[in-house]
Amino acid sequence: MMTPEKSLPESTLLQAAQSRMPVVLQDFLRQQNPSASRLSEAMLYAVTNGGKRVRPALAYGAAQALGAKAEVAEPAALAVELIHCYSLVHDDLPCMDDDDLRRGKPTTHKAFDEATALLAGDTLQALAFLSLHESTLDASRIRQQVAVLSRAAVDMAVGQALDIEAEGKQLDLVALEHVHRHKTGALIRASVAMGAIAAGATAAQLAALDVYADKLGLAFQVHDDVLDVIGDTAKIGKRAGSDIAREKSTYPALLGLEAAQGLAVKLHDEAIAALEPLGAAADPLRELADFLVDRDH
User: Fold this and answer.
1) SS3 content of the chain, % helix, strand, coil (to 5)
2) Second label for 48, Cα 20 to 30 Å away, from 56, 105, 173, 219?
3) pLDDT computed for residue 249 by the predictor
4) Does residue 104 register a pLDDT over 90?
């Protein structure tokens, strides 16, 4: 069982994704329409501006947990990261969260301009589905992945809308979990599901991995809320205390800091328990979960 005080090294699965994804992203984007050079530059900036690469790591790890090579999940890993990066570009815009920093660097609309950032996000979202289309998987698996990612992209937007509506209010625990199962959890669950689909998962394997992803997605968000209270701006890469400044409903505000930290640990343990049927092959996913509820950034 993890404790909030324990410090872990970064997950090896995460390190592998961090090493591989920038190359994959740059190669893929450089193959696209180069006519609007400023737009192309903004997209490259948005996807190579650091990042933990959690979602690609989950896609790779899910495939490996089912005995497949990580490479089989690469189009899925690319797709989820493109969706994630688009969402961050849009979330940072003045009409949304109005953030100046992302991963310790100027946000895309600050480095370029609002219109270019908006178009960059739009294009990254569309290209995510092109990545799946160009996969060498059989057509039935590609269709499954497209359906999973489409639903997740919609749910993510719904979650953002709910989060905006909740500003200035304090939601109860059920309502807060509903927001974050959409805003944060949907894409995390999709990452795991798409990696598993690439590996030919059975219905039982998909169900076990979905419980893992659901619990991990909530734990990830709870810990993010905790970091907004206790984190260092230089480490977390955005303004600490920004949730408080925007009067967002958060787990520490609802439960208190210590109880929120305890909830993250509880959710982590439930995620780990869901992986039991998959045996040792799921150890990289377990290691990743350990890191994600202990990170300082």
Assistant:
1) 75, 0, 25
2) 219
3) 84
4) no
3-state secondary structure of 47: helix
Q: Record the pTM.
A: 0.90
Residue 255 lies in a domain: yes
Query: Is residue 244 in a domain?
Result: yes
How many residues are given for the chain?
Answer: 297
Q: Which of 104-113, 169-178, 240-249, 255-264 has the lowest mean pLDDT?
A: 240-249
**Beta strands, E only, 147-205:** none
Calpha distance 215→238 (Å, rounded): 25
pLDDT digits (tens, 9 = 90+) for 57-97: 999 999 999 999 999 999 999 999 999 999 999 999 999 98
Q: How far apart are CA 28 and CA 146, in angstroms?
A: 18
Give the chain's domain count.
1
Domain assignment present for residue 261? The answer is yes
Is 187 part of a structural domain of the chain? yes
Place of tokens 């953030």: 99
Q: What is the CATH number of the domain that holds 284?
A: 1.10.600.10
Measured CA to CA, the distance from residue 149 to residue 128 in angstroms comes to 9
Domain of 144, in residue numbers? 12-291
